[in-house]
Design a protein that fits this description.
10 helices; Peroxisomal Thiolase, Chain A, domain 1; globular; alpha+beta; 14 strands; 340 residues
Length: 340
């Protein structure tokens, strides 16, 4: 990593009103991988994992499952919860950085599984992917280019992790979440959002091989370059800063104070990242939703999975304010304050 890199200023916050979420859904695979399992299989220190991350267990996709399968299950549950027939969908925006294959897109695979007549596009912004997809879909709905948009985020992280790397393998899990967007009242939607990137920090979190730059070869695979690589300390520092800074950005742009928000749903990357950021802003931890202890970091699935569980638990009700935030490889981030 280049310690001397000087990031550009963050893009200014913008607003997308007149949209609303009419349904949420999520799915995690059945295979539960506990810290004890990792200790028995790989010798990882269970107490170290909990102390450094807050994670107790995570889910791994079964051998026959891929990212599209997780996304399909989340989408079906979302449609059922919204009581909306699949035929009403006219747009699918799917976020993932672990697609089933390079092409066709996982979005098109999902469109086929759902048997809907709709445009299907895919975005890749790693752990910020769902926020990129949500804001993209909201722009389509707000402009009238879509009447009912299905927004999905999902990843099979277990397929790109080195099981011998304690710095990455215990942190991530597999899962997916979905929301359904349609037109809403003028006062509903994204009061303010910050969407940005800093490619100068790309080498902090990457999967170097298996792209057009470094096509897979036996030599590259022997070096483990087909696995995720992460500079944990650098990512930690950046994540704490970008989470706290962009929450403050969107609140100030909306003329809100931290205490005005009913619920905060940050990307479930690491308990220490989340707590460090919210403590800077003096946000009570009781206003923050956590589920990373059960799922770990599910990347693009993280925010919608947490959002679906928060809704199911009754922690988010109509007209309340919620802050959503995703951040990760790219480097990329998306943070928004939304009237539910």
């Amino acid at each position: 990593m280049n310690e001397e890199r000087i990031p550009l200023p963050r893009p200014r916050c913008r607003s997308l009103m007149g949209v609303r979420v009419v349904g949420t859904g999520s799915y995690v695979p059945d295979a539960v991988v506990s810290n004890d399992h990792l200790h028995q299989r790989f010798g990882f220190d269970s107490e170290w994992i909990v102390k450094r991350t807050g994670i107790l267990e995570r889910r791994h996709a079964l051998p026959h499952q891929a990212t599209s399968d997780l996304c399909y299950e989340a989408a079906v549950r979302c449609l059922d919860n919204a009581d909306v027939p699949a035929r009403d969908i006219d747009l699918i925006v799917l976020a993932t950085f672990t697609p089933d294959m390079s092409f066709p897109s996982t979005a098109c695979l999902l469109q086929d599984r759902l048997k809907v007549s709709a445009a299907a596009l895919e975005v890749q912004a790693a752990c910020a992917g769902f926020m990129y997809a949500l804001i993209t879909g909201a722009a389509y709905v707000a402009s009238g280019a879509s009447s009912m948009a299905l927004i999905v985020g999902g990843d099979c992280n277990s397929r790109i992790l080195n099981p011998r790397d304690i710095k990455t393998y215990p942190l991530f899990g597999d899962g997916a979440g979905a929301v359904l967007l349609t037109r809403g009242r003028p006062d509903q939607g994204l009061l303010s959002f910050s969407l940005g990137s800093d490619g100068s920090g790309g080498d902090m979190l990457s999967r170097p091989a298996c792209g057009s730059r470094l096509p897979p070869t036996p030599e590259l695979i022997n070096k483990g370059l087909h696995y995720m690589h992460m500079d944990g300390r650098a990512v930690f520092r950046w994540a704490v800063a970008i989470l706290s800074d962009t929450i403050l950005d969107v609140l100030q742009a909306s003329n809100l104070r931290p205490q005005d928000v009913d619920l905060y749903i940050p990307h479930q990357a690491n308990i220490r990242i989340i707590n460090a950021a919210i403590d800077v802003l003096h946000i009570p931890r009781g206003k923050v939703f956590y589920n990373l202890d059960r799922y770990g970091n599910t990347s693009a699935g993280s925010v919608p999975l947490a959002l679906d569980e928060a809704v199911a638990e009754g922690r988010l009700k109509p007209n309340q304010l919620v802050v959503l935030s995703g951040f990760g490889a790219g480097l990329a981030w998306g943070t928004a304050v939304m009237r539910w």
